[in-house]
Amino acid sequence: MSARDSVDSALDSAVGSAVDSLVRAGSFFTRAEVSDDLRTVHRTGGRAAEAFYRDRWSHDKVVHSTHGVNCTGSCRWKVFVKDGIITWETQATDYPSVGPDRPEYEPRGCPRGASFSWYSYSPTRVRYPYVRGVLLEMYREAKGRLGDPVLAWADVQGDPERRRRYQRARGKGGLVRATWEEALEITAAAHVHTIKEHGPDRVAGFSPIPAMSMASHAAGARFHSLIGAPMLSFYDWYADLPVASPQVFGDQTDVPESGDWWDAAYLMMWGSNVPVTRTPDAHWMAEARYRGQKVVTVSPDFADNTKFADEWMHPHPGTDGALALAMGHVILKEFFVEKETPFFTDYVRRYTDLPFLVSLRETEHGLVPGKFVTAADLGQDTENAEWKTVLVDDATGGPVVPNGTLGHRWGKNETPEWNLELGATVPRLTLLEEGESAEIVLPRFEDDQRGGTVRRGVPVRRIGGKLVTTVFDLMLAQYGVAREGLPGEWPTGYEDASQPGTPGWQESLTSVPAAQAARVAREFARTAEASQGRCMILMGAGTNHWFHSETIYRSFLALLTLTGCQGRNGGGWGHYVGQEKCRPVTGWATLAAASDWSRPPRQMIGAAWFYLHTGQWRYDTLPAEALASPLAEGAFEGMSGADCLAASARMGWMPSYPTFDRNPLELGEGADPVADAVRALEDGTLGFAGEDPDDPRNWPRVLNVWRANLLGSSSKGNEYFLKHLLGTHSNLPDDGPRCTPRDVAYREEDVEGKLDLLMSMDFRMTSTTLLSDVVLPAATWYEKHDLSSTDMHPFLHAFTPAVDPPWQARSDHDAFRGLAERFGELAAVHLGVRRDLVATALQHDTPGGEMAQPGGVALDWSKGECAPVPGRTMYDLKVVERDYGAVGEKFSALGPLVDRLGVTTKAITFDVAEEVAHLGEKNGLVRGGAGDGRPRLDTARRACEAILALSGTSNGRLATQGFETLEKKVGTRMAHLAAEAEGKRISFADTQARPVPVITSPEWSGSESGGRRYTAFTVNTEHLKPWHTLTGRQHFFIDHDWLHEVGESLPVYKPPLNMHTLYGEPELGTVDQKSVAVRYLTPHNKWAIHSQYQDNLYMMTLGRGGQTVWMSPQDAEAIGVADNDWIEAVNRNGVVTARAIVSHKMPPGTVYMNHAQERTVGVPKTEKTGRRGGIHNSLTRVMLKPTHLIGGYAQLTWAFNYLGPTGNQRDEVTVIRRRDQKVEF
Amino acid sequence: MKVMAQVAMVMNLDKCIGCHTCSVTCKQAWTNRQGTEYVWFNNVETLPGQGYPRRWEDQEKWKGGWERTRSGRLRLRAGGRLAKLGKIFANPEMPEIDDYYQPWSYEYKNLTDAPAGDDLPTARPVSQLTGEPLDTIRWGPNWDDNLGGAPAHAPKDPVVEKIREEVGERIRFEFEQSFMFYLPRICEHCLNPACVSSCPSGAMYKREEDGIVLVDQDRCRGWRMCVTGCPYKKVYFNHRTGKAEKCTFCFPRVEVGMPTVCSETCVGRMRYLGVMLYDADMVAEAAAVEDEHDLYPAQLECFLDPHDPAVVAAARAAGLTREWIEAAQRSPVHDLIATYQVALPLHPEYRTMPMVWYVPPLSPVVEAVAATGSDGEDAGNLFGAIDALRIPVEYLAEVLTAGDTRVVEAVLHRMAAMRAYMRRINLGEERDESIAAAVGLTGAEMEDMFRLLAVAKLEDRF
After folding, report:
1. What are phi and psi of A98, to 5 degrees?
2. Reported ipTM
3. pTM for this prediction
4. Which of A195, A639, B164, B415 could cysteine-pair with A643, CB 3.0–4.6 Å?
5. Other CB atoms within 10 Å distance of the CB of residue A683
6. Cβ of B120 and A288 within 8 Å?
7. Ranges assigned E (strand) in A67-125
């Protein structure tokens, strides 16, 4: 058939028609080649109109920058500029190669980032400073009358009527433009007044995730630190901090970079929806499959990543721990008991606490696991004997104290003993061969929060009059793995659903078939054995945001640790939830804490601050006792969440700000303020603020928020924030449940409006800015200098301005410098030089903090259980001198303390004399004032240089020096890891030119040496550096009193909280024909990063253009809801109005409201209250778990964002019904 | 033989994460202006689903592409030019704005400007076309993303409608049976473009040197016959200029050696660009083969082997430069389409000879095998399991091979075999040539294909 035959048949019949002539004529005039059949037209010339698209593509310059967004992305972008206007952005592809045989880090980015430039000129851009109109009038009037800004602010605050009037106007429009001068003056005056009247710890700063823009974070944090105001933690507040990590590893979080996924032979994505939440990195997973990597997803819904999976397991939400325990059961049985797997046993002997001895304690219930056996129990009179744990040497059969324990870490040893060198010792895993056994009682929780018990046997021996066994033997008992000759109840087989630990038991809880659970466990372990530890679990918010998340995580980590997968490339845990690794951590921390000028800074646990000061503690009917094990000793009797918090503060465990019911400047005045304060606490003349949080003396007064949208995103219990902290309208029901604390004062009257000032800084309008009293216009990420890094890749990225900040926007650094200077001017008059009594919690990675409370025995001095000894049984107390008039000068200069004390990370102190000299030359020196002769930090760029110069990851000299320091402590060779880069000093210009790989440094636990892909803990496994834990190994067992109290000394399954019995919510299931009670989960959003981008028109268009709730067809049908119908979700915390997305990818009984959908865009008034609908966190609230508050004991010792109560939010339920389809805005 | 060069694209759907970065970067670069608010030169669809515009695959309704007459000739489905002249002012086969979606925005200014009131300000949704409030947004360009609303919308997916009869139970919109994949779409820059033939003004053309199909913005008279003629609905009407616009294959970038925006910014690293040489004299015949299942092989036959000296000579004679010929020889697109034959055309039955091809997705296979009690890691078992995929092979075949499941199965076998072959290497075991041989490749070829699909360095993709 010829071409001619195949032409349009209609054409055939109409040859010569007018239209055809037109085409033929056209071909004549346009130098085009029309095919004979007129089917197609090829053109070589006459294409002038193509110029339109060429013009559109043209631009004047391309600037490389990145996005300072809380996504862990740290992607490098090309920003295109034409005629001085930012036009669009595309991802950079200039990442250094990661090697010839693996995929590269290009391009990195996602659709959200790709739409960022929309914000530059969007109508939601904050262009000018704004002040709440009604407040501005009051302030101007008072200032006109009194002539002084501080007195004017005091005047407004002194009048309850005026104060309440502007508080009630919060969030209701009426922001008016002000000048920068006036906005900064009001803000500075509020700070000066608050410090003078109430104390510096009544000011707080909230700005999360330093890594996403370090200099911007540090600028504000530095201002707070200089004035003595606490910065609030965020990692724990976001519930992103996996408490299991400090518990098991003694590390905040350390994980493989995404490039290491490629090395994994088996990859489980467990509650981690990689294509959505790790968009730039998902390709590694897709590509590694082609290497034969097996991929398993575990998710209650048909999540996006399931598309890539070889297997999908869908346990009921929150039951993942049961599945993991059953997998552990299979691995322990088949790979440890039925046969020995040398690779596994060798690993657990060296790197875990499994061989360590634990004493058994007689109780009314029977024998229960007690405390680790220590050198003190052996009667050894050595240094730190209570902190040296014991195991049995298989060779001799005798107990030995191996190197590497916490006692060795802080000992003054002649030769280094803090290492995992075992010498001739072979740790004995089980005492089974020794012949003696005993029955112990273990708690179980699967039926109800209080649970029951199970009796199982363990082999034992006697040491120092105590029955002891090994952690390994306890684990087999806990996991229900039977061995011949041991007493107790044991499963009859995998199918036995009555015994905790079996695949059949988990099926009854999760719905995952027992056979599948067993098969996946077996494959996992087999692959780990064959690949020498290359199995990886990516674990995400889906499993981490639960109340009992650390129990879930510990059961996951057990799978990895048992199979030798931690500290291996291609293996281990990949927890990428809010964990943006600030790689140049030491430099950032120095600037942020202003530890170059004064120490210690005040740093606060965010969740506790919000729990108390938003009044949520008053509605918390979850008593600590409800969490107790059936084997508990009654430590939590009568205690509410607030009582636990107060106890934790008394015992020095967790920080608490405001600390005392007094201005700490007042307390700092005497000759011996520390002794005075201890005496006053003892005799009751001085109280803790947290014991009476609603006393006006104990309110926080000023909150500054930048780089964050607290009130439209992370504020769990959003309506409580509005009502109690801010004192404006809310959708909080009046008849919510109330608590009755044991120790903490409960005042009958609700407090509304604790804050005098809410100041925020942003480039877009959010719930936070709309509710603020002062709003400052911030520069965007394309308009300032800064630095970013992440755990997902090893590079340092620069922000570089593509254009100057438009309108009146300023960088965070410039804004805080302005505030610090104005503050200093006002403070010189009103405050002067003061002495501040700073109370800090017992601190992780310090000998005093980690060895404060031996045996993890909780003793409360206020109950007469011990004496109050600062830094041991209670807070450390220090007097800090503050020259308030010099705050502005200090802000812009690197202070002298670093010369004298160096800078410290994880107990390694770096001598930075050379770096200070270098910075002085690079940045120039300050002339005159408090910072005379010191390196300048007056611009963001200079701050970035300081961050890079003072960190080991960006300064090879420091990295090498740090390893040399560590070598002296550990005794193994490590400095070679950094030696290749000893002469390398990464400058800010380097990071602008191209992504720069970081240098291996003792600030972290892995290695990038020789271009190796980073994974955590290789320094531990390969260089025998101990973990920062009690035994120096990874822990399965934790013996603190409070962990025993909740039955979590070993990995254990705990179901989601029962919100019906605890908070009076309806039981899950249909309530009536119009409404249904469902589990309410808030996974991350495909079209936003938290609330960022959610208001962006591109993302709104690709999503459904407003708040949505995903629900199953079954639940929708039960209440007559069709796809896209308007619904309302209501519970005791608030109300949400949204549209339903009905999809069969959702399991019945559970709805998803994707995280942080703001009410600022397209959210109507609710049917229930007639007021604006809430955000996703309007239906949640803070619930404290007492064990998150433990401190002063080995790895369970506080550090900022290392340990603290989490703001978990996944256990919630809500009632959903169809609402009137006519909506009003 | 008439040698012509065509820039072409292959997308590996098996790697697509459905992130839509391509859509956003494309829209930012090309269509974020008045008149093109609703236009996405590049969009990504979740399948099963209705797509954008809704049910674009329903050619019974839209009359896009070509059809073969009983006499074996091709004619535009929408009728010849004369037929079109008759309905030039009221074309019934034209999607309306609601078939795409009503583009909207919000009254964002309210957030900064709201006067003191009694509630938190919000930005109310409004139509971008009329400015009128749009209180309940009812459809968007990606409405059925990730199976959103699938129980209501996906049964109206034309492919679902078509194959439901055949596979019945396996296409159910229930939790346990869930399946999905993503389909990113741009203009196909067809070898036999129906849009060009549909244009009464002669404003559409295929560029001589690279085959990119463009609308001459000076000559377009806004008749919109191209919108109807394109079966992929990838020509759009700019309501402000009154002219048609479409994906340009980023020619201003391609001309200077840069990849298209969608390719460069593809975070899944699943797009490949390259030059294909083809015999222009064979196109019309290939597009008119009788059996729709023969369309894919017929199009493959149009492609010329750039390493064949005769082809090189003919290409030089046709005026192709050495650089173009070398580009064709190094073309990853050629490797995926012709050498490994893992990429397939989109809806070949439209007979437009599309030039954006797709590697089909390999969804959970092991699970299907394991459910039968067999070893899910065993290569032999994997082959047997392809027909038990979560995504029914029939669905993929309807999208990529005019319903010929054998072709799709063969591709999926190759992909599965690659995984099994590479797993042995990954775990330090001996290479097993028999796995490669079972799918018609040598081990070395398997490793080359692996490198192209997995390692896929920037310079290997474009």
Report:
1. -100, 10
2. 0.96
3. 0.96
4. A639
5. 8
6. no
7. 76-82, 85-91
